[in-house]
């Protein structure tokens, strides 16, 4: 037989228990599960690459309690977090491997443990439905037992099982029997898919529960180095792409960052950091001085970061399809421009532009490219030319004015600025793909009940592109309110009352635009009506070592949910530093240090695991020494106000007899330090001289000696 299932079954049962105590990165067993085993399963010819995806996982950066290998029908799902699929699951004691028809429902939980019962209820109902309509073909029916110490995800695997076969360590059947079992399970899977043609990766129940349990306003808080900022990227991606946190946790972090940066480019995620001088003017709106064209000082109301963000988020995502176009997607970030085509709306010029998919304006007597210093132009004409030349962007939208209240052209700008004198009167052009042309559309109401200007080019900022799209004759418009995430790093460092002002009430989920108790306020400088859209999520981070949560603004605390992020030393338990035959387990080392900090200070000033994660890539004493020099010792100095005796207690230096293994060394002050007798003012015998012994940071015994438990 071409492929081998028995190789996978035997290796995972025989090797996983030992290998999971070793370094995860570049481990041969991990690479076998992820890369080689899926290829072997395809080579059995039981499944086709065109219909199925085979994926294996033994963890991401650390060993999983429940490693797995799954077979997904790509018409149903491609992830173990949702849909129905075949999956091999190893028990926590590594003695049993289950072949199961299972279901992924972690998407239902939204990462919240307190909806676990509701999720399991849905899973059991689904399993009962499948059992009722499909013969089990000799497989066991119902839940499996993966043992103790499971994560929530592991428990879902247990409860989600529909049919299963159990293989025991030391009693693995022949390759022929393993392939026969898989063939039968694939038959069941195919029958399930055939009988459920409308299976969707995301059920309505999933969306409903996700929306219930993800807080609109949330703060991740904890000591330094616990991965709060790291976690916000995962939260933002999960929220914007409507995924569960567990599902995003399966991604490599570089892929999370890639998607996070894409969302920032789309302006669906905005990141800012609060500080003591951050105020209402930067956050909501303020008055800023600037010079007009005649160099006179004028005062302009300028929107702040959060107001701009809410305006963007409030624009629904619209897909436009018409009888004469391929369809367009507006993200809500585009600008809308109004163009006057020729004097008195020159019909010949319009016809040329509509036929050739372009817009054109004149000024043939001026240079091809103009700037603020170009002579012979009035301020309005100069502004129109610069708008057309520099400010318009590909992806922006344009309307063509036909009267003071109507337009007869609406299109997507697809080209950069060009100077094309094939039309000598109107040589300046941009390519446009027309969404609508010909019949007039009244946009007076969309434009705030205001007539359009007769300027050649200007931004039509009052008009919502997405609402305009819904007025296009014959358009097939799909409207979607896409989630947007506003990330505030170090939220507790700002003066909340000063920054949010009267808007603190509006961020409550019940006061959002569209909610039953929706509220809006009149902003003090612009006079604009303002409300917070319902699709805006505010995600903050807070360093508890910087300021206790108890000291936070009460108004803020009432309106935010809080997620504690404490050091997770279990992430470091698989890292061992070995030097001169001496081994130090980093997880246990940090566990001891944090227990001592908690006793001497409090749990909010412990040291996070994130400082040590670089050891995953290089577990050497020199890397560990850099972490202690640049992060651990400076944090301890800050926490204990340079009380070096307490720092020595934390690092175990007080118990080390070998001074070459001490991080902080202590000596008595010599009696002859001063040339005179100072005993009446200073008791030198009680004073100590402390010195950070940086050379000892490269001594493995300095770390081994932190505790007898190492």
TrEMBL record:
Residues 11-193 form the Type IV methyl-directed restriction enzyme EcoKMcrB subunit DNA-binding domain. Pfam families: AAA_5, MrcB_N. It comes from the Bacteria. Transmembrane segments: none annotated. GO terms for molecular function: ATP binding; ATP hydrolysis activity. Residues 462-560 form the ATPase dynein-related AAA domain. This is ATPase family protein. The lineage of its organism: Bacteria, Bacillati, Bacillota, Clostridia, Lachnospirales.
């Amino acid at each position: 037989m071409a492929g081998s299932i028995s190789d996978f079954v035997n290796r995972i049962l025989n090797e996983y228990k030992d290998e999971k105590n070793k370094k995860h990165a570049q481990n041969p067993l991990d690479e076998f599960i992820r890369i080689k085993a899926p290829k072997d399963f395809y080579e059995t010819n039981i499944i086709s690459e065109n219909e199925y995806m085979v994926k294996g996982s033994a963890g991401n950066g650390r060993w999983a309690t429940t490693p797995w290998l799954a077979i997904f029908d790509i018409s149903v799902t491609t992830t173990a977090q949702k849909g129905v699929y075949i999956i091999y699951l190893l028990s926590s004691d590594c003695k049993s491997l289950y072949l199961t028809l299972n279901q992924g429902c972690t998407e239902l939980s939204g990462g919240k443990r307190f909806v676990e019962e509701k999720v399991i209820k849905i899973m059991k109902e689904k399993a009962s439905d499948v059992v009722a309509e499909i013969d089990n073909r000799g497989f066991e029916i119902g839940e499996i037992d993966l043992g103790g110490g499971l994560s929530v995800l592991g428990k879902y695997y247990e409860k989600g099982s529909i049919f299963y076969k159990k293989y025991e360590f030391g009693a693995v059947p022949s390759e022929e029997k393993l392939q026969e079992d898989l063939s039968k399970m694939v038959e069941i899977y195919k029958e399930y898919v055939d009988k459920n043609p409308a299976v969707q990766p995301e059920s309505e129940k999933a969306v409903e529960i996700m929306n219930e349990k993800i807080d609109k306003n949330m703060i991740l808080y904890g000591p330094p180095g616990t991965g709060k900022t790291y976690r916000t990227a995962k939260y933002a991606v999960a929220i914007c792409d409507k995924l569960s946190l567990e599902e995003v946790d399966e991604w490599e972090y570089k892929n999370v960052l890639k998607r996070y940066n894409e969302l920032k480019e789309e302006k669906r995620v905005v990141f800012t950091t609060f500080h003591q001088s951050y105020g209402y003017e930067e956050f909501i709106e303020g008055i800023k001085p600037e010079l007009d064209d005649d160099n006179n000082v004028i005062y302009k109301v300028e929107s702040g970061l959060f107001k701009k963000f809410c305006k963007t988020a409030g624009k629904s995502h619209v897909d436009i399809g018409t009888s004469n176009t391929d369809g367009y997607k507006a993200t809500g970030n585009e600008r809308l421009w109004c163009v006057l085509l020729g004097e008195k709306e020159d019909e010949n010029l319009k016809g040329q532009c509509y036929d050739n998919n372009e817009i054109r304006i004149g000024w043939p007597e001026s240079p091809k490219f103009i700037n603020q210093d170009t002579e012979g132009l009035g301020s309005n004409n100069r502004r129109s030319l610069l708008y057309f030349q520099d400010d318009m962007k590909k992806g922006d939208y344009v309307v063509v004015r036909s009267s003071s209240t109507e337009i007869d052209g609406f299109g997507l700008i697809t080209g950069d600025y060009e100077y094309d004198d094939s039309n000598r009167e109107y040589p300046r052009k941009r390519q446009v793909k027309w969404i609508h042309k010909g019949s007039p559309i009244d946009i007076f109401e969309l434009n705030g009940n205001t007539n359009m200007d007769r300027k050649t080019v200007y931004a039509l900022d009052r008009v919502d592109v997405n609402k305009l799209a819904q007025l296009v004759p014959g358009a097939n418009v799909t409207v979607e309110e896409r989630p947007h995430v506003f990330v505030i790093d170090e939220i507790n460092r700002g003066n909340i009352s000063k920054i949010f002002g009267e808007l603190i009430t509006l961020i409550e989920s019940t006061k959002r635009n569209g909610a039953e108790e929706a509220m809006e306020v009149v902003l003090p400088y612009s006079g604009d009506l303002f409300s917070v859209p319902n699709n805006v999520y505010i995600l903050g981070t807070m360093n508890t070592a910087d300021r206790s949560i108890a000291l936070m603004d009460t108004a803020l605390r009432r309106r935010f949910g809080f997620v504690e992020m404490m050091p997770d030393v279990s992430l470091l338990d698989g890292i061992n530093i070995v030097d001169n035959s001496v081994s130090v387990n980093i997880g246990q080392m940090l566990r001891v240090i944090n227990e001592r900090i908690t006793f001497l200070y409090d749990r909010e000033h412990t040291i996070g695991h994130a400082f040590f994660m670089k050891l995953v890539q290089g577990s050497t004493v020199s890397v560990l020494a850099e972490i202690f020099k640049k992060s651990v010792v400076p944090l301890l100095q800050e926490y204990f106000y340079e009380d070096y005796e307490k720092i020595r207690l934390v690092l175990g230096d007080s118990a080390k007899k070998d001074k070459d293994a001490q991080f902080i060394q202590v000596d008595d002050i010599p009696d002859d330090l001063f040339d005179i007798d100072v005993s009446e003012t200073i008791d030198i015998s009680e004073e100590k001289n402390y010195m950070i012994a940086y050379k000892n940071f490269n001594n493995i015994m300095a770390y081994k000696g932190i505790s007898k438990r190492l």
